[in-house]
Amino acid sequence: MKHLKTFESYKREDISEEIAKDILPKFQKMRSDGQEVTIDDFDRYMKERGADSDTIDSVMHYLINIGFDFDINNEDEEDDIDFELKNRI
User: Fold this and answer.
1) Domain definitions of the chain by residue range
2) For 36-85, what is each residue's pLDDT tens digit?
């Protein structure tokens, strides 16, 4: 058994830290294989596994604190720039 604690005995922070430590190598491998890992990718990954928004935020916090920087989704930036330009006209 990988973890000795039962699920019920975990605090949200404990389980979020465990999840972050567990998925960090997967995301690092994705990046080393040339894939981007954006916040949207992370959200999708967590939601596919049934995580709620509080857990997603907490895990993201731990990932950032242990040194993982998410890639910026250029499409979102371009959409923001297009929106700003349209509002100026």
Assistant:
1) 11-88
2) 999 999 999 999 999 999 999 999 999 999 989 888 865 554 454 444 44
Token output for 17: 């830290």
Q: Which residue has the tokens 């920087």?
A: 69
d(CA 43, CA 49): 10
- Please tell me the number of Cα atoms within 13 Å of 51 on its side-chain side: 21
Supply the pTM of this predicted model. 0.66
Q: What is the C-alpha to C-alpha distance for residues 87 and 76, in angstroms, rounded to an integer? A: 17
The answer to whether 36 touches 71, Cβ cutoff 8 Å, is yes
Give CA–CA dist 36/74, Å, rounded.
11
